[in-house]
Automatic annotation (TrEMBL):
The keyword Kinase does not apply. TPR repeats lie at residues 176-209. This is Putative negative regulator of RcsB-dependent stress response. It comes from Gelidibacter algens. SUPFAM superfamilies: TPR-like.
Length: 263
């Protein structure tokens, strides 16, 4: 049977096949020539790359060194600067914490103790000093929380909002309490809309059986005073259905009734 050109090509491409006809020899030469050109191009590209690398090796080595230096500097900063600074800040804050806790626990002269907590005493730092001296450390962030709480107890509601708004901690209890206290401060400042917003935010953070029903209850009452009856009813019903064992749930039916009567 007569072979087609396709059959000839297929046979030619088998390993070890030697071209027989003039046409096959010509085609083989062309293919070899094309292959050689490809390899020559690759060799030329590789050579140019090597030449560039040799010519610019100082820059390459320098860039790698810079990257390594940045990484080592970061690790060194954390180990030899940031960590010791954070530890020192916590130590310096100890006395201010003691003043604050004594005030919370009902020791006499609460106002004086809260003031000492803020400004320091006996040659020790207060919370405001910690914030200024150790900004960016966990201690400074915690001092911001303490400062906001101290200002609230001193009836300084503007500073309460200022400092607690700067508190960035995500502690399961401190974060909602901070936002809830901002809500309390706005109530005292006669800004119920802002108070409602912060109570609702506090209630939604790290939902639990302690802070969540407490701030839902506050949110419901503020919503009632603002005429937002449906929102109030929703908050009260959530307490009833989701937190039935909370202290806020004890008389919640009364508040649900008030909200329903206002619809």
């Amino acid at each position: 049977m007569r072979r087609t050109n396709y059959d000839t090509m297929a046979t030619y491409k088998k390993r070890g096949y030697k071209p027989k006809t003039q046409a096959e020899k010509t085609e083989a030469l062309e293919d070899n020539s094309t292959t050689a050109e490809v390899f020559n191009t690759l060799d030329e590209s590789a050579s140019r790359t090597e030449e560039w690398a040799v010519k610019n090796q100082n820059y390459i080595i320098g860039a790698v060194a810079v990257i390594a230096l940045v990484a080592l500097s970061y690790l060194g900063y954390n180990k030899f600067v940031a960590e010791p600074k954070a530890s020192l800040a916590m130590n310096d804050m100890f006395q201010a914490q003691q003043y604050f806790e004594q005030a919370v626990n009902g020791v006499a002269a609460k106002d004086s103790l809260y003031t000492l907590s803020l400004n320091g005493g006996e040659g020790k730092f207060g919370m405001l000093d910690i914030i200024n001296e150790y900004g960016g450390t966990p201690a400074a962030d915690l001092a911001t929380y303490y400062a906001g709480m101290a200002y609230y107890n001193l009836n300084d509601y503007q500073n309460t909002v200022k400092y607690l708004s700067d508190f960035s901690g995500d502690d399961l209890l401190l974060a909602p309490i901070a936002n809830g206290r901002i809500g309390d401060a706005f109530v005292q400042l006669n800004q119920p809309e802002d108070a409602l917003s912060y109570y609702e935010k506090a209630a939604s953070m790290n939902e639990n059986g302690f802070t969540t029903p407490m701030y839902l209850f506050k949110a419901g009452n503020v919503a009632l005073t603002l005429g937002k009856t449906e929102a109030a009813l929703e908050h009260f019903n959530t307490i009833k259905e989701t937190y039935p064992t909370s202290s806020q749930a004890a008389n919640i039916e009364v508040f649900i009734g008030q909200a329903q009567a206002s619809l």
